[in-house]
Amino acid sequence: MSAQPPVIPDYGEPSACVARDATFCTDWFGDHWWNLFWPALVQHLELTLIAVVLGFVLAVGAAVLCHFKSWLAAPVSGVTSFLYTVPPLALFQLLVPVTGFSVLTVEIALVLYSLYLLFTTILTGLREVPEDAVRAARGMGLTRRQILFKVELRLAVPSLISGLRVTTVMTIGIVAIAAYVVDQGLGSLILKALQSPFNTQFIGAGALAVALALAADGALVLAGRLLTPWARTRRAA
Amino acid sequence: MRAGARQRAWAGLLALVCLAALTGCGGAASATGVRPTVVIGAKQFTEQWIIGEMYKQALTKAGYDVELKNNIGSTEIIDGALTSGQIDLYPEYTGVILQVLARDESIPHSARDTFVKAKAFQEKRGLTMLEPTPFQNKNAVAVKPAFAKKYGLRTIGDLEKAGHVRFAEYPDNISGALGYTELVKKYGLTDTKVRSLNIGLQYKALDHGDVEAADVFTTDPQLARGNYTLLEDDKGFYGFQNVAPVVHKDVLEEQGPKFAETLDKVDALLTEKAVQQLNRAVDTVRLTPAEVAGKFLVANGLL
Predict the structure, then answer these.
(1) Which of B198, B268, B290 is closest, CB to CB, to A1?
(2) Cα–chain-centroid distance for residue B90?
(3) Where is the signal peptide (chain A) (predicted)?
(4) What are the pLDDT digits (tens) for A194-223?
C-alpha cells in the first residue's frame, strides 16, 4: 500500500496579492466569503446571542430580587464584580477540565462575565424610577407585582438597553478569545491567521468583529427607541 | 390477600417484560450499526488541521459519524482531552509521545523503534496507535544561510561559536522535553536568549533579524526555497517523528475493523513530499485545510 507514491494534486499558485501577503487582498476575501467568513460570522453572532440573552434573564431576575430585598444587593454585586475581574482566557482554561472543549464552557464563561454590567445597570435603572411614579401607581391601586411590570421595568428600559449595549459589545469581543476553547467564530479565523500568518484573514475577521459590534449596538439603540415612545415625544416637544 | 399477591405478580412480570424489551432494544441498536459519533482532535497548526480534515472526510465518506475539534494544544492538553474522553482520537507524532508524554529519556535508534515504544506506552493507558505515516515532521533549528556561513555553523552545538544568539521558540515548547530549555542544556549553549513567538512567526523574525535561530518544523513550506539553513541535530535531541492516530481501544472495537482500515489508507499516502505540498497549499496558496484535504483524497481515490 505504501509502496505506491501518492498523487499530489496541483494546488496552483496564490494570487500576486496573496503571495506577498499584502495588508488586505479583496480577491481572496471575496473568494472565501461563503466558505470561511460568513459561517464564522454567524457562529460568532450565535455564541454572543445565547450568552447575552441568558445573562440578561439572570441579571433581570437578580436585580429585581435585590430591588425588593436591598440587603442582597451588596453580596450579589460583590460576586458579579469579582467574576468580571477574572481574565477571560484564565476562566476558559479553568472551566475546560469540568465542561471540556465545548460550547457549554464558552457560554458559562460568557454569561458569568455579562452578569456584572447587566446587573449593575438594571438595578440602577430600577432604583432611579421616580418615587412619584411608584406612589401614583400605588394610589391607583396597583399591586406590588403590577407596579414592577407596568411601571418600574418599563421606566427602566433606557437603563436596560444601555446595559445590553455595553454587554453585547463586550461579549462580541470576548467571543473572539473563545476560539481557544471551541473552533468557532471570527476568533478562530484570527487565531489561525496568527498561527499560520496571513494578513487578509486576520484583518478581514477582525474588521467583521468590529462591524458586528457596531451593528449590534445600532440595533439595540433602535430597539430602545421603539420601546420608549414617551422619550421621543418629550424630545419632540 | 390473594388478589394483592396476583397483582404484584402481574406487576413483576410487566416490569420484567419492560426490562427485556429495553435491553433487547439496546442490543439490537448496536448490532444494526448505530454507532456513536467519533470526535477527532487536532492541534493548533496547519499540518494537524489538514490531517484532521483528511481523517474526518475519509471517515465520513466511509459512513461514520465524525466531528472534528481543531486547535487543541499543546501536547499535554490534547492528551488530557483524549484520556478524559473529550475526544476519541488525534494524530500525534511518535517521538513526542515518548519524549513529552512518556518522559522517556532514551532516544530510540530508528523510526520503527520509536513507534513500537510509543504504542506500548499508549497501550498501558487503554489507548492504541494505528500504522504511522511515511513522513516525519521533526523540530529543527533554522538559521539564515549568511549567518551559518559567517560563523561556520553546521550543527546545533556550533551555535556556541556565534556569540549571543536570540532563539525563537513557540510558546508551549519552551519548557517541555523538546523545548528550548532542554535543547540548550543538551547542547551546552551558554549565551542564548529565548523569544517566545507563535508558530509561523519564526521565519519573519529570522528575516527581520529579530532572532538569529528558530525552532521550526521540517515540513514547513518555507524551507522548500532554500532561504534557511537547518542545523544538524547530531545528538538526536529531536528524535523520530512520524504521525500515527492515537485512539481509544474501545472506540476502535465499537466502530469495527473498517474504521482503522480507512485511517490506515489515509496515513499511507502521507509522504514528506506530499505533506510539504499540502502545507504549502494552505500556508502559501491559502486554500482552506478542508479544500486541500478534500482535493488530495479525491486525487487518490479515497473520496
Answers:
(1) B268
(2) 6
(3) none
(4) 888 899 999 999 999 999 999 999 999 999
Residues B124 and B143 in one domain: no
The predicted model scores a pTM of 0.82
Residue after which a domain boundary falls, among B231, B253, B268 = B231
The label of the residue with cell 471540556 reads: A100
In a domain? residue B76 = yes
Distance (Å) from the alpha carbon of A5 to chain B's nearest alpha carbon: 7
The domain spans of chain A are 38-224
Note the pLDDT tens digit of each residue in B104-122: 877 788 999 999 999 999 9
User: Is B200–A197 a contact, with Cβ atoms under 8 angstroms apart?
Assistant: yes
Mean pLDDT of B131-148: 95
pLDDT tens profile A26-35: 999 999 999 9
Final residue of a structural domain among B210, B231, B252: B231
The whole-angstrom separation of Cα B168 and Cα B180 is 9
A-chain residue closest to B47, CA distance: A196
In a domain, B266, yes or no: yes
Q: Which residue has the cell 488525534?
A: B90
Q: Which range of residues forms the domain containing residue B272? A: 38-136+240-299
Chain B CB within 8 Å of residue A19 CB? yes
Query: So what's the pLDDT on residue B243?
Result: 97
- Please list every residue in chain A whose beta carbon sits closer than 8 Å to the beta carbon of residue B90: none
Kindly determine whether residue B300 and residue A197, on different chains, have CB atoms separated by under 8 Å: no
Mean pLDDT rounded to a whole number for chain B: 88
- CATH number for region A38-224: 1.10.3720.10
Amino acid B199: pLDDT: 78
Instruction: Return the C-alpha cell found at A57.
Output: 434573564
CA-wise closest residue to B42 among B66, B7, B21: B66
Is-contact B67 B285, C-beta < 8 A? no
Distance of CA A210 to the CA centre of its chain: 12
